[in-house]
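Predict both folds.
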Amino acid sequence: MLCASPTGLHRVSYLEWGDRANPRVLLCVHGLTRSAHDFDFLARSLCRDYRVLCPDLPGRGESQWLKNAAEYVLPIYVSDMVTLIARLDVEQLDWLGTSLGGMIGMALASLPQSPVRRLVLNDVGPLLSAQALQRIGTYVGKAPAFDSLDAAEQYVRAASAPFGPHTDAEWRLLTEHVVRARPDGGWRMHYDPAIAVAYASHDNGKDIDLWPLYDAIRCPTLVLRGEQSDLLTPATALDMQKRGPKARVVELTGVGHAPTLIHADQIALVKEFLLEA
């Protein structure tokens, strides 16, 4: 899919599940350094009820890297997703976003005439804590080259420890989704390290405040919060129940930032919310 930014054109890749004729559409958008394959388990579970689309944001997965690193920002991501929605030729859809994907969803759902019918925010809210932003900034764009897939997995396990307990097989899948083999036989993270440039511009020791976006949302909203999350604090989650769309908040025990949505209990929460209407 061809998209535009001020610097030029770039291609965005996406995975598709289910019947293309199904008018019920779900768009799932991943976090900062992850990929479309993060939703493989969820998409398999929902593809009988939904046409499920899972894009790779620009600079990640199979999508093209941007020429100007300063364009790895929310307005460009929203524009790309609007292009995808136009390509689908649908009037309404449901949105599930993890972390950055949820920020994009909030921005889109806040707009007049938004196509978002129901919104799931996976461990993200309108106030992002400076502590978590600084933690994430310690590894974004700084991953070394790896001699083996095992070494890459150990790095992913350490950087993504807040995901919570997973089996060895699940950690291997979570690693394979975000690394690629190098021509010299080693491995590297499969995202543009330059995404750290735009990210660093927000790392000023302050929280990021998106409350004006959240307060403008009117569609039914579900918030999944990792009990140990440092990005979405308990206080912010409580305020999200009182303001804007007055979200339904579910806290997941033993998990930080962010729930991976590959376990059956997490998938069931999403499925129940999306299909209840």
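Second protein follows, with its predicted structure tokens after the sequence.
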Amino acid sequence: MFSTASRNASGWRLSEKIFTLAGRRFNINSPKQLGEILFKDLGLPAPAGRGKGKAVSTAVDVLERLSEQHELPRLVLEFRHLSKLRGTYIDALPLLADKDSRVHTTFQAAATATGRLSSINPNLQNIPIRTELGREIRRAFISAPGTRLLSADYSQIELRLLAHYSKDPLLLHAYRNNIDIHTLTASEVFGVPAETMDKETRGRAKAVNFGIVYGISAFGLATQLGIPMGEAKAYIDRYFARYVGVKTFIETLLEETRKTGSVRTLFGRVRPIPDMDSRNPNQRGFAERTAVNTPLQGTAADLIKLAMISIDKKLTERSLATRMVLQVHDELLFEVPANEADEVAKLVREEMEGVVKLDVPLVADLAIGENWREL
């Protein structure tokens, strides 16, 4: 699938398109030369900020804005994406495979502040999924003969934990009655009836929901959605007006963190938050966002580890040949013999959903296929 000829041809065709639009050949990987093409030769508006070495910035956000005015910046973004896929995955991963064509990662149990596992040499937790081309990388990860891959992914775990912590009536009602939370937020915040809602409106509500989890600011939401900051602030204000329990939870949590200088996960794991009263607004803002997110992301990290321990114990007790082969934050990946698929799917779902009793149900989404892309 990832032949040298095909990937070189793709990169060559793309670079030739870029050179044609630029009117001359140049080093696409050079910010200085790219800046000259964009801002001098093509006359596109230069950003106010400067990149490294005081050159005019050609960062992703700059190119994304310029893509609305000219095709060349869009093709440069595509070129960078293709180059990253090639250098990080297509060329590198086959060299790391053993004699059985298996790639082995190393998990670090205590390398992240949130408590999540991290993966190195190679990092198998950042295999692309957001773009169509990136997702094709996952097709190269296949199950052994006679087995299939089983994926089990916690559904909206951090938002469910937000409902548990905040005891917000709307969130509790939604998750207890299997109501789509993004559709609900779109109705509550944007005033759009669920029956007439389009995907774009639901997508904006999704950004608001997850933005609240990560303590997003009006500026951050405005940047993410491409809307005026005043409009983004109005969205956040309306969210907290409707989800009063969430507002109270965050305010109480921040007040307690200022007193104690730390936050805890549901299971008592402590994370120091030293800059809550910093005079530097950037440091203080980061500390506040961290204080809000840690009980949610940190507890999610604890939950998946407890589920992994429980599942491994059950697989051993039943003498099953199934192997847990990967953990990607809220997702577990198993290599399952065909004759064990139904039993293991039931076991995994029961252990993940029953690992702890919350005020809302935990839900694990399961999928099975011959390669990771299918899942």
